[in-house]
UniProtKB/TrEMBL annotation:
Cleaved signal peptide residues: 1-18
Protein name: LVIVD repeat-containing protein
Entry keywords, A to Z: Signal
Length: 428
C-alpha cells in the first residue's frame, strides 16, 4: 500500500492581547477569526482542472520540457505554457494547457504524462490545439492528499482553519468563509491547536532523448527510459510500464531516502538528487530499481546531471534548502559503488544545470547563466557569464540551448568556445 502524503501544517504564532473594558467580553474569553472551506465535488474539480486555452501570462516560472518543435514551460501548480519553437530565433506562444496541481511532465510518441494533485494524467497532444483522450490515474504518484486546493484560491487571514466538515477524499477547496467565534484560549487550543496554517501557505512537499521522447532539464522529477516512466517524490520512485502508451500500468513504489527532488539517467542507472545527497539506482531490470550507492552531503537543494565518469551536482544552501554553502560538487563515479568527491566550486544560488559535450551550463539564480569548459574537471574554465538575468532551468539541445528564468525563455546558439543569445521571449 502506498503511503499517504499529508500536507504538514506549521503552527501559527498567535499573540493573545488583553481585552480592555470596552470589549464587553466575558472574562477569559477572546474573539478568533475562523476560516471554513467552501468546497466542490473533487471528481468534477479535477475534470474541470484540465483545459486548453489561449496563451496567458505566467505567474511563477517552473521547469521546461522540449519535444519536437515545442517547448513546454511549467507555471507552478497551474499548467503548461506551450511555445512553437520551429524557429528558435522567433519562438511563438500558441496555447496554455490548464492543468492544476502540475509541476512535471514527460512525453513519448505524442502522449504527455503529467502529475496533477498526485494523480498521473495522460493526454494525447498529437493536435496541440485539440487535446483529447485525457486519462487520469488517481493517486498513482501520491496515495492521497490531505486536501486538494485550487491554485487560484486566495487564502484568507485567520487565526485558524476549520476542516472538521471536509471530506478530503470527495471534496476540493474552492474558497473560504470566515467568521468570528468567541471562546477561551484553552478551548481554542483544544480545537485548533494543530490546524493552523502559516500565512495560508501549503508546505512544500541529460542523456539525449530518443527521437520519440522529449527532454527535460535537471530539475525534472519525471524520466522516461525505454518503455518505463520513473516519477520520484519525497521518498520513493514510482514505476510505470508505458509500453502501452494509452494504458500505463502502475508497477511499484520503491522507497528511497527522504528528500528526493530530481531524477536523471545514464544508461541503466538512475541518479536521484535529494536534500541530503545523490542516490544511484540500477534499472537493468527496469521494473525494479535497485539501490547501488550514494554520495551524501549536508542538507541542501540538489539537482544532478551525469557525463561519463563524473556526476555534476549543484547544492543550494540557505532558506529552506539547508545549511550547506552553495556550490558545484563534481563527483567521481568511475567506481559506481563508491562515488567520491573530486572537487568543489563555489556558486551563489545554483538551480538547474546541463551538459553539452565539453560545455557545462549552470543556472546560478540571480547571478545569471554561467558556462564552463569542463575538459579538465580539476580546472574548470569559464567561457561565458550572462549576468543581470535570473536563471532557473536549462536544457542543452543538439543545436541550441534552452533556458527559463523569471518569466522569460532564453535560447542560445553554440559557438566553438562560447555561446551567444539567439532569442528571448517574455511569458508575461
Amino acid at each position: 500500500m502506498k503511503k499517504s502524503i499529508l500536507f504538514m501544517f506549521s503552527i501559527l504564532s498567535l499573540s493573545f492581547l488583553a481585552c480592555d473594558d470596552s470589549d464587553n467580553l466575558p472574562a477569559g474569553t477572546n474573539e478568533y477569526l475562523i476560516a471554513t472551506p467552501l468546497t466542490t465535488d473533487l471528481l468534477t474539480f479535477k475534470e474541470e482542472a484540465i483545459d486548453v486555452i489561449e496563451p496567458v501570462d505566467i505567474v511563477q516560472s517552473g521547469k521546461i520540457y522540449a519535444y519536437k518543435n515545442y517547448i513546454f514551460v511549467n507555471d507552478v501548480g497551474r499548467g503548461l505554457h506551450v511555445l512553437d519553437n520551429s524557429n528558435p530565433a522567433l519562438p511563438e506562444k500558441i496555447a496554455f494547457i490548464k492543468l492544476e496541481g502540475n509541476n512535471d511532465i514527460s512525453i513519448k510518441n505524442d502522449k504527455l504524462y503529467a502529475d496533477s494533485y498526485g494523480d498521473l494524467v495522460i493526454m494525447d497532444i498529437s493536435d496541440i490545439n485539440n487535446i483529447g483522450d485525457v486519462k487520469r490515474l488517481e493517486n498513482a504518484i501520491y496515495q492521497e492528499f490531505w486536501c486538494t486546493v485550487g491554485f487560484d484560491v486566495e487564502w484568507p487571514q485567520a487565526d485558524a482553519y476549520d476542516y472538521s466538515d471536509l471530506d478530503a477524499n470527495r471534496e476540493a477547496i474552492v474558497g473560504w468563509e470566515t467568521k468570528t467565534v468567541r471562546m477561551t484560549e484553552n478551548e481554542f487550543n483544544e480545537k485548533y491547536g494543530f490546524a493552523y496554517l502559516e500565512d495560508g501557505a501549503l508546505a512544500n512537499t541529460n542523456a539525449a532523448p530518443t527521437s520519440d521522447t522529449g527532454q527535460g532539464g535537471s530539475l525534472a522529477r519525471f524520466r522516461i527510459v525505454g518503455d518505463y516512466l520513473y516519477a520520484v517524490e519525497w521518498s520513493s520512485i514510482n514505476v510505470f510500464d508505458i509500453s502501452d502508451l494509452d494504458a500505463p500500468e502502475v508497477l511499484d513504489e520503491v522507497y528511497t531516502s527522504w528528500g528526493i527532488e530530481t531524477i536523471f539517467n545514464q544508461g541503466d542507472l538512475l541518479f536521484l538528487g535529494g536534500t541530503r545527497g545523490m542516490y544511484i539506482y540500477d534499472i537493468s531490470e527496469p521494473s525494479k530499481p535497485t539501490f547501488v550507492s550514494d554520495f551524501e552531503h549536508g542538507t541542501a537543494c540538489d539537482p544532478v546531471v551525469v557525463d561519463g565518469d563524473y556526476a555534476y551536482v549543484t547544492l543550494r544552501g540557505g532558506n529552506l534548502c539547508g545549511a550547506v554553502e552553495s556550490g558545484l560538487y563534481i563527483v567521481d563515479i568511475s567506481d559506481i559503488k563508491n562515488p567520491e568527491l573530486a572537487i568543489e566550486y563555489p556558486m551563489d544560488e545554483p538551480y538547474g544545470l546541463g551538459i553539452k559535450e565539453e560545455k557545462l551550463f549552470i543556472c546560478d539564480g540571480a547571478s545569471g547563466l554561467k558556462v564552463f569548459d569542463k575538459t579538465d574537471v580539476e580546472n574548470l574554465v569559464e567561457l561565458n557569464h550572462f549576468e543581470d538575468i535570473v536563471t532557473y532551468d536549462v536544457i542543452p539541445m543538439e543545436n541550441h540551448l534552452i533556458m527559463v528564468g523569471d518569466g522569460v525563455l532564453y535560447q542560445y546558439e553554440y559557438l566553438e568556445n562560447e555561446i551567444k543569445l539567439l532569442s528571448q521571449i517574455g511569458l508575461n
